[in-house]
Design brief:
Elements (H helix, E strand, L loop, with lengths): L10 H4 L2 H12 L9 H4 L1 H17 L6 E5 L5 H8 L3 E6 L2 H10 L7 E7 L12 E7 L10 H11 E12 L8 E3 L6 E3 L9 H10 L3 E8 L9 H10 L3 H19 L4 H8 L5 E7 L9
Parallel strand pairs: 1-2, 1-4, 2-3, 4-5
Antiparallel strand pairs: 5-9, 6-7, 8-9
Helix pairs in contact: 2-6, 4-5, 4-11, 10-11
Length: 294
């Protein structure tokens, strides 16, 4: 982890439960920050991601799969999922964000919005084994070290048996690229409060240590999910692609059809097809729970 503060202080000295909550309450109330929210920028492709897993649960016999947007912020992804016809709830530790989500999404359809829940500690008020798909976008990189185990344990607790847990986070971010200096106290900090640069190995190890069964982890270009563009656009893109890039494209498509013939799950086929990029996506299953275990 890069040192982002002055005077030898740890970044975690600045980002506490109180300061994180106040920071995001202010951010969500400032309209000029709205276009910068990750969940707003990539709401459409993330909706494609969630849909693959909702469909998987439907094919498994779940009549109406439910989705939880864990750490929903102002609810841009929540809104996109509901508008895509899904049954969705949200949870957030910022009380201001929860109020904004519940106000803005009241009456939104054609899916069903189950409401946003405010939490102040773990475990959250959400009941155990409540959701078929739990997605947490861009939260892991904000966690203090002592919160990581509880974070993954909570995702495991609230996800239904045989459900899906999806986590996104920046991949190998160079933290100093977003370094800021406070003109008042002269403390240096990451502009969005990121505390770690994440690798596939580090997030997988933390998740597995908390009991999750990691199924797939890769760094991908999230905004390319779900965009095939049609044959003409594809041919135009290939015409301007290097031979190496074209060869990679062909290999990915060949792998897709091989997986199709081999009965590989649809979500895995689609994710393997996505271009490599700057964001990690981790797909996991909850730990098998014995009788009376949560």
């Amino acid at each position: 982890m890069s040192s982002l503060t002055s005077g030898g202080e740890s970044p975690e000295d600045l980002w506490t439960e109180f300061t994180i909550g106040k920071f995001w309450d202010h951010v969500c109330s400032e309209p000029r920050f709205e276009p910068l929210y990750f969940s707003k920028i990539v709401a459409e492709p993330l909706t494609h991601l969630v849909r693959w897993f909702v469909q998987d649960r439907f094919r498994s016999g779940v009549a109406c799969p439910t989705v939880l947007d864990y750490g929903c912020g102002p609810g841009y992804l929540t809104e996109a999922l509901v508008k895509a016809g899904m049954t969705v709830a949200a949870m957030e530790f910022s009380a201001g964000s929860v109020r904004a989500v519940n106000q803005r999404l009241s009456g939104v359809g054609p899916g069903e919005f189950l409401g946003a829940t405010s939490a102040t500690e773990l475990p959250t008020p959400i009941e155990s084994d409540s959701f078929d798909v739990v997605i947490s976008t861009e939260a892991y990189e904000h966690l203090r070290d002592e919160w990581i185990a509880g974070y993954f344990a909570e995702l495991n607790r609230i996800c239904k048996p045989h459900g899906w847990i999806l986590v996104t986070t920046p991949h190998q971010e160079h933290l100093d690229d977003n370094l800021c200096l406070c003109p008042s106290c002269h403390q240096m900090f990451h502009r969005w409060g990121h505390l770690r640069s994440v690798t596939r190995q580090s997030i997988s190890e933390h998740a597995q240590r908390s009991g999750l069964e990691v199924q797939w982890t890769s760094a991908i270009k999230i905004d390319s999910m779900g965009h095939t563009g049609g044959i003409k656009q594809t041919l135009r893109s290939l015409a301007h692609t290097s031979p190496i890039g074209a060869a990679r494209w062909i290999r990915r498509r060949a792998s897709f059809f091989t997986q199709l013939l081999n009965g590989t799950p649809a979500w895995r086929r689609h994710l393997d097809l996505v271009q490599r990029g700057p964001h990690l996506v981790m797909v996991a299953k909850p730990m098998e729970k014995g009788p009376g275990q949560i």
